[in-house]
Amino acid sequence: MPTSINPLLLAILACPKDKGSLIYFEDEQMLYNPRLQMRYEIRQGIPVMLIDEAVTVNQIEHERIVGKAAQLGLKPTFD
User: Fold this and answer.
1) Are 13 and 49 spatial neighbours (Cβ–Cβ below 8 Å)?
2) pLDDT tens column, 14-68
3) What whole-number distance in Å separates Cα of residue 11 and Cα of residue 13?
4) What CATH number does domain 7-72 carry, 2.20.25.10, 2.60.120.560, 2.70.98.60, 2.30.30.40?
5) How far is the C-alpha of 29 from the C-alpha of 20, rounded, in Å?
6) Are the C-beta atoms of 13 and 22 separated by less than 8 Å?
7) pTM of the model
8) Distance CA 50, CA 61 (A)
9) How many CB atoms lie within 10 A of CB 48?
């Protein structure tokens, strides 16, 4: 079962590389930066916000993730 991240924490989380907002996917336990096509894992409810551990996704995976966010109405962690 996925672990939820505290909404107060989500409101301040930013990508460590570009300092921009992220999209939270609770069911996949990840935070995603669509600008850089980078995903950050969430392990045991803790976001791993290390650039060296982020995964850069290919264009097909990027389109899947962005499409899923649009379909589910997911919004960035902040504006």
Assistant:
1) yes
2) 999 999 999 999 999 999 999 999 999 999 889 999 999 999 999 999 999 999 9
3) 6
4) 2.20.25.10
5) 19
6) yes
7) 0.93
8) 20
9) 14
